[in-house]
Amino acid sequence: MADTATNQSKSTTAGTDSAKGGSAVALTDASRTDASKSVAPAGERGKTSIADQVVAKIAGIATREINGVYDVGGATERMVGKVREVIPGTGTSTTQGINVEVGERQAAVDVSIVADYGVAIHQLAAAIRRNVITSIEQMTGLEVTEVNVTVHDIHFGDDDDDSSDTPRVQ
């Protein structure tokens, strides 16, 4: 019994071994409940950094998943995207038309799109917001503070017809 009382009053060490470059935290039984708040749980021992590019890719893919989004990006971004498609070994950028700001716990997203004609733009924007927020929060654990949607243009179905190949008058 005397050994038990002596062991409880002695300090114990928790944390990493100081010989490995980590720091050790000394705890006593009396201070164990207060000090345990400062000791990181096993899942929080280290820092996870998520690059802006990763969040932008997630947002770009989530935006393209929504029906009614014809393309992502403004006129200049779409033109650069068309040039990239022609160059061998490159493809469409998943981050085209997406701008993000990523902090330690939060992210803000700006999305630029071209909508299909006939789609209710306010409902399209709401669907994009929901999908982007859900995707980013589930995949990264970041809280999405805002998703701003800018509609740069509307695509008509007959815009795809290449009228330069077909003469106007026959």
UniProtKB/TrEMBL annotation:
It comes from the Bacteria. Residues 1-46 are annotated as: Disordered. Residues 1-16 have a biased composition (Polar residues). Belongs to the asp23 family. PANTHER family: ALKALINE SHOCK PROTEIN 23, HYPOTHETICAL CYTOSOLIC PROTEIN-RELATED. This is Alkaline shock protein 23.
